[in-house]
Amino acid sequence: MSTFSVDGLISGLNTTDVINKLLEVERAPVRKLEARKSEANLRLAAWRTLNTKLSNLEDRAAALARSLTYQAAKASSSDTRVLVASASPGAPSGTYTLTLNRLASAHQISTDTYADKDAQVFGTGTVTVTVNGQATDVTITSGQNSLAGIAAAVNAAGAGVYAAVVQVDGGWRLLLTSRTSGAAGAIAVDTGGLAGGTEILSFPNEVSPAQDAEVVLGTGAGAVTVRRPSNVVTDLLPGVTLALAGTGTVTVAVEQDVEAVKKAVRDFVAAYNDVVDSLSQYGRYDPESRQRGALQGDGTLQRIQAQLPDAVLRTEVAGQTLKRLSDLGVRVGRDGRLTLDESKLADALQGRFDEARRVLEASGAKVRDMADGLVKTGGPVWLAVDALNNRIRTYDQQIGRWEDRVERKRDQLVRMFTELEKSLGQLRSQGDWLAMQIRRLGGGTIREPGRARVPVLPRVHRFRGPAGGDAVRRCGALPGRGGPRLPVGGRASRGALRHPGRAGTAGTHGFAGPAVRRGPQPPRPLPVHVRAAGGRPAPPGPGGAGASAGLAGAVAGRLAGGGAAAPGGREGLVNPVERYVEACREVLRCTSEVARAADRGQWEAVLAHLVARQRAMDAADRLPFPSRPELQDLRAQALVLLEEAARLNQRVTDRLRRLRDLLRPVVAPAEPHFLDTYR
Questions:
Q1: For residue 579, with 0-12 CB atoms within 10 Å meaning exposed, 13-18 middle and 19 or more buried, which class applies?
Q2: Which of 55, 120, 629, 638 is the most exposed place for a label (fewest CB within 10 A)?
Q3: CA distances from 265 to 22, 57, 72, 221, 316 (A)
Q4: What string of DSSP letters covers 14-80?
Q5: Handedness of CA 162, 167, 169, 172 (dihedral sign)
Q6: Rounded to 5°, angle at Cα 59 from 55 and 61
Q7: Are strands 205-208 and 106-110 parallel, antiparallel or unpaired?
Q8: What are the DSSP E strand ranges found in 293-337?
Q9: Mean pLDDT, to the nearest integer, of 201-213?
Q10: Looking at 61-186, which runs of residues are DSSP E strands?
Q11: What pLDDT band is residue 459 in, cutting at 50, 70 and 90?
Q12: How far is 83 from 216, CA to CA, in rounded Å?
């Protein structure tokens, strides 16, 4: 993104805001694509939610279809302080009396008490540890012959025991605990391989015996006594796990778990209703608020809404009293949701468990298969999600292309407004140049109320003389502007110029011509002609002041100093006055073209003609300014040219002021506009 800014350099416009507002129009297709993408994302999110809920319904239905759900069993203990019982699916029902005589324990032995656990008072060498017939040699080196060092060496050797230094009353002891519970985990330690030291390492203290748990099954003469190395017994009662906690006699009851079946039915109903609620939410239309769901009118959603009730209502098991889910208290309401009658389900499970199981298994299998067909790869939901993902990727690509186009448009606008600022700057400098030329030719300045002082051009009027000649006189200020008028006499005066070659009284410079008539006359501007060969005036260019292409060529040639000699002994454009006048005509032609292009709104042509006018002005500046005697000869012609140039320059200024007024509703300028101060 371009970061160049041309704000307020000449025009005072907030160009950045103007460009941003113009780009908002260019981004209209982007906004439409983003709206479509947003809608597609909403649809995609809806289908993903439905996919999740249909998968959950599939799992709940599969639980109803599994036989293990109906084999659930539960076990209870009459005294949980003695043992806690739990049953796995398929455990046979029954009641058992158990007596716990002792619990299993792991063997633990310890050394005597020592005051310092880090005192290196034992010998170095080898200690042999034997557990369950497996002997392990532990090497004790210098620096390890302390309680802490020996414990670390035993643990590192993996001798089948846990070694720890424990703090007791009066000091520290090294405690060894067998990793094997029960009688088989007895520990034997041989310290005969140690040599040196001031203390003898030994384990004379048995902290915990190595014994198995002892459980008696039954209370009669045929009671069975069993011993287990662990306090968790899994192989005494089939399908029942006993966690031994103490000694005593308890009763363990194992029975079928009907509550597990009820829970499976409740979970299925909740999952089904969750899917129905989502389908209703995404497919609804509220006529009052005119709000519609993300998938309103979607054919796939409507097919799912029709399949769900069929899978529940049309599942029937023949040859038994309980045939449908409705016989178990599961019904479909008017809104499509399932309702569950808990008491009716409990009665069915209590009195006809097998029949209820078959109905639930059949219904669960039907709903499971239906849900799996919807969410599996290649299913309707999967296809809908895949199609939306592809559509969103397409939108992203189109948005990216449009954003690139907008950025190119931004760069184009920045360049255009930069050129506009440059052109306004050139217009200001050219206006200053034009005012300077007017002042050099004798023009004054006036001030209108509320406006800055502006240049005033002398007016030249033409009147037809008695001999068919033209008389020219200066009439002071422009129409509508105040200012003195120069005196006009019957003979040539300083304000009346005679055309050379005319009949009449000789003027100031020896030219003859008819006298100028006194009194105010209607203003008639002197037309601008380019004298062609033969001394006849050439016709003016189109638009009065706008010279034709032929005029431009003639001016270019004469400015270069060429041209044939005119009749009467005057050379074409050899006179510095004529060359200067022709240079002014070239500026006038370019100004006229600028005005025409501005009237037509052709701003590229405006820029081109402004460049041409600047070149003509530079060429005029390079010409030597005519001396005073030479100036008097064709001063009237130069004044007319400059007057016309000022008028056309005002047209361009007015056109740019109109452009400013058109831009103001878009964004207000940050400071007074250039055209507000330059008149």
A1: buried
A2: 629
A3: 63, 12, 14, 46, 17
A4: -HHHHHHHHHHHHTHHHHHHHHHHHHHHHHHHHHHHHHHHHHHHHHHHHHHH-GGGGG-EEEEES-T
A5: positive
A6: 110
A7: antiparallel
A8: 330-332
A9: 91
A10: 73-77, 83-87, 94-102, 106-110, 124-131, 134-140, 161-168, 171-181
A11: very low
A12: 13
Angle between helices 380-440 and 353-375 (to 10 degrees): 30
The phi and psi torsions of 146 (rounded to 5 degrees) equal -130, 170
Cα separations in angstroms, 438 against 449, 475, 477, 652 = 22, 16, 13, 18
Which two three-digit tokens encode residue 36?
């479509």
Instruction: Report the C-alpha gap between 220 and 373 in whole angstroms.
Output: 59
Q: How far apart are CA 516 and CA 507, in angstroms?
A: 11
- SS3 per residue for 484-542: CCCCCCCCCCCCEECCCCCCCCCCCCCCCCCCCCCCCCCCCECCCCCECCCCCECCCCC
C-alpha–C-alpha distance, residues 207 and 639, integer Å: 130
CA torsion through residues 481, 484, 486, 488, sign: positive
| The overall pTM is greater than 0.85 | no
Measured CA to CA, the distance from residue 575 to residue 18 in angstroms comes to 52
Q: Which of 138, 140, 144 is nearest to 161 (CA)?
A: 138
Q: Among candidates 456, 463, 534, 537, which has minimal Cα distance to 498?
A: 463
Q: Name the burial class of residue 668, with classes exposed (0-12), middle (13-18) and buried (19+) by CB atoms within 10 angstroms of its CB.
A: exposed
Is the pLDDT score of 173 beyond 90? Answer: yes
Contact 236, 226 (CB under 8 A): yes
In angstroms, what is the C-alpha Rg of the chain?
57
DSSP lists the bridge partners of residue 537 as 531
Token pair of 485 as six digits: 């008028």
Three-state secondary structure call for residue 159: coil
Cβ–Cβ < 8 Å for 460, 472:
yes
Task: Single out the residue of 103, 86, 87, 99 nearest to residue 244, CA to CA.
Answer: 103
The model's confidence at residue 636, banded by pLDDT at 50, 70 and 90, is low
21-40 tens-digit pLDDT: 888 888 899 999 999 999 99
For residues 232 and 243, the answer to whether their CB atoms sit within 8 Å is yes
Find the length of the chain.
679
Nearest C-alpha neighbor of 658 from the set 643, 673, 672: 673
Q: Are 329 and 343 in contact (CB under 8 A)?
A: yes
Reported as a single tens digit per residue, the pLDDT across 31-64 is 999 999 999 999 999 999 999 999 999 999 999 9
